[in-house]
Design brief:
This protein is about 30% helix and about 30% strand. The chain is α+β, with helices and mostly antiparallel strands and about 180 residues long.
């Protein structure tokens, strides 16, 4: 299992994380607004094909450790996205159009592994390398916060995790 996201096909980034189960617990952290808000973003989610997905991001609030948002991200610090569910097979698979304006799709696949759960996340249909360079470190940092929450650890600040990952993903994601 690779710690970093990998490019599996054009405009697609793939991640795997082994998380403490059971599967229903991990599913709840993906689908329930309050739990999802601890690692990604709050918002209602209609768990049916065609259902609405709302995500409200406040990345600076994902850790009790306070740090300022880097100036270049201040306009994105509080972001609202609306997507649509494309597949829903509780508690193993959930896909949605990330944001109806972008058309990219994110898929979460959960597979029990003993007491743990393998989470496979695929974000496909990204417009260009710049989108991949945002999504790669973004998912990496968010999945780290998820793992911390599920393991009962206090997550570190989001931005001080995200910013160094940008350079790493710039090396890992091939140029256009």
């Amino acid at each position: 299992m690779n710690e970093y996201g990998v490019v599996t096909e054009p405009r697609t980034v793939y991640f795997e994380r082994l998380l403490p189960g059971p599967i229903e617990r991990v599913w709840a952290y993906i689908t329930e607004s309050e739990k999802r808000g601890k690692w990604l973003g709050t918002g209602e989610m209609e768990l049916r094909v065609g259902g609405r997905v709302e995500l409200n991001f406040h990345n600076a609030d994902l850790s009790p450790k306070i740090e300022p948002t880097p100036e270049r991200f201040k306009q994105r610090e509080s972001t609202h996205l609306v997507g649509r569910v494309t597949r829903c097979e509780p508690p193993r698979l959930l896909s949605w159009i990330w944001d109806v304006s972008s058309g990219s799709e994110v898929t979460f696949e959960l597979t029990p592994r003993g007491a743990d759960v393998m989470l496979a996340l695929t974000h496909r249909g990204l417009h260009d390398r710049n989108a991949m360079l945002s999504v790669g470190p973004g998912w990496h940092a968010h999945l780290g916060v998820l793992a911390d929450n599920l393991n009962g650890r206090e997550p570190g600040p989001f931005w001080s995790t995200f910013v160094p990952l940008e350079a790493e993903y710039a090396k890992r994601i091939p140029p256009d």
